[in-house]
């Protein structure tokens, strides 16, 4: 593609306007937004733009021969899927910020890129401004990689920070996160762990070259956290964080899951607070790398999208090299985790089987159990564990990763 | 270049043997070490290699048509310069770990890469395993970048950690660093700040597209630190760290220097201890990114060299894009710093002019002055400030970077 980038932008919300701003600031980007497609033409927006470039007709972008890059930051996964696939089939490269869409359709999107000799970049879809995907794809492009784990969702982390560092009630913290625009108006996506899950799926493709579908991955959020759990964590001198991780179990297998976790002060992610994201990359030889930055917000995400736009100036595309490795590791849920399960009315000890029960506590109001259980069994008990009186958290013990 | 990498390796010390190990482990690297050139054939080494591939004749590598990549990890800057320039002139791409050589000769090395259409990669030369250069070159490839600052030297940081976190005497800590192999047998390079300086020069080329020669950059090390300085820092609840930084002063100018700095607990680099490196990248929009990892040691460095080797499989080369920007910022020492200067016999107040004196302390044994002074003047006083009774440290006040 030529060196001048003429952009067709889909979506002009927080991120879209952020993209407009950063491109305006980046004097050397040689990039220009030629057209902006929005759903509602009349909607008021902070950023002033020439109304002539705004349209509600997608074809005005798809059929404009001058446009050589489509940037898609709509907040509707369905629409985002239509936009991206249409563009790729027309051979137009795309930069997307839609993690949900990318995570769900990645195998097809990879095929489309090959079939139509074009590119889809989506670094902004994971960890806002932190260049996780690009680094896993390019820099950790070798099989020394053992583990990628971190705090991938800014709003749930903000909520937990308010609770642990400021002693706020969960509900008050959630409200504040929404007021600050970190959490969606419907925050389920964030606090259910789904947002972290989607990012983890994308990360795993670039870390180990393997795609695993959302439904096959154990995901547990923070929405059922109780004061008793917070109290318990405080007494132990640890914080509860929502952690997503993909970990090599042995030479040929890896596991992955999203779960609240008790995090001790000695670990890097302990200090990742508020809306920040933090990712630990562990490998043979280089031990641990820690990347830390703003994971939420319009401008951080926009700056990451700008990096993808600039990368297109040089024709950059993900090669998905690791998918071509002689032997890619196999996904397994056949690993034993040590978990904490708080319950009130549900009879956890009676309803669940464990490998080994390590601690049990009961009182008039709260009960908890600490036990070893396989990830496979946790998957089996998913519905049971979703009861509002239950809260589950991981007590990290395996892979000697106590100090990450 | 083809996809199989046949390596000619120069240097088989700690890093060289580390490179041998990681390539051996990286099954999917498609890389093989065909020949190893060493200075002394008889030297005992930990790693067992077929003696037939070891030589002390460089031409056996340069003239081997099968070798399509030279990896150079000799610890002698002169030799490293000869090896790298010879290779580039023969059109053979090179991966180098020699920061001193790269930092001093970078302009010529960039010319040679263009003239002979080949590539020189040196990510390992800065911050061991942290992918700083690659990220600045590729990901922060836009002019939103405001500042790169960090702890770039593992051994001096290890020494300061022992002093501050373990109450050891400076001399004992230095000895320990040498015993652990973090510091060179001649540690001057590390504790004088030179090692950090060279890394900073390389970082600046990839961060802002400007090369500044070592002699034009104010560099002050930790070798003259006194118990009184350590005491002073402790009383203020801060640590002293050796910090290298390049900072945009305004739209069109930047400054850079290496200096001990009082670091408060609220800053990211406060928690970068022992042999670790930590780099903070600040930009418009994305605020601050923090990268943290092992900065010293054979294997971390080797894993970074492996990343450069893998990058060559895909023909990767630094484009030095930012040097081609319409307007690159201009280097200036015309900035005011707030500094702490400890002195015993040298009459600092009498011999130095300051913009403004903020504090003065005198006692029978120690004296210190806290004052505003321009970086230009600090350059003027370099010789004076190198007296053994003097210790200088930066008290960060400018660029609102108090929380980085």
Describe the structure in your own words.
2 copies of one chain form a homodimer. Chain A is an alpha/beta fold and 404 residues long. Chain A contains 14 helices and 17 strands. In chain A, the strands form 3 sheets. In chain A, strands 7, 8, 9, 10, 11, 12 and 13 form a 7-stranded mixed β-sheet that branches. At the A-B interface, helix 1, helix 5, strand 12 and helix 11 of A face helix 1, helix 5, strand 12 and helix 11 of B.
Oligomer: homodimer
| Amount of beta strand of chain A | 25-35%
State the distance separating the first and last CA atoms of chain A: 42 Å
Q: Which stretches of chain A are poorly predicted, pLDDT < 50 over at least 5 residues?
A: 398-404
Most strands sheet of chain A: 7 strands, mixed
Keywords:
homodimer; seven-stranded mixed sheet; 404 residues; globular; alpha/beta; 14 helices; six-stranded parallel sheet
Q: What's the structural blueprint in terms of helices and strands?
A:
The structure is a homodimer of 404-residue chains.
Chain A: E1 5-10, H1 14-25, E2 31-37, E3 54-55, H2 59-62, E4 69-72, H3 77-89, E5 94-96, H4 99-115, E6 120-121, H5 132-139, E7 145-151, H6 154-166, H7 170-179, H8 188-191, H9 194-208, E8 218-219, H10 227-235, E9 239-250, E10 253-263, E11 276-283, E12 287-294, H11 298-313, E13 330-331, E14 336-343, H12 348-351, E15 356-362, E16 367-374, H13 375-380, H14 382-385, E17 391-394
Parallel strand pairs in A: 1-2, 1-4, 2-3, 4-5, 5-6, 8-10, 10-13
Antiparallel strand pairs in A: 7-9, 7-11, 9-10, 11-12, 14-16, 14-17, 15-16
Helix pairs in contact in A: 1-11, 3-4, 4-9, 5-9, 6-7
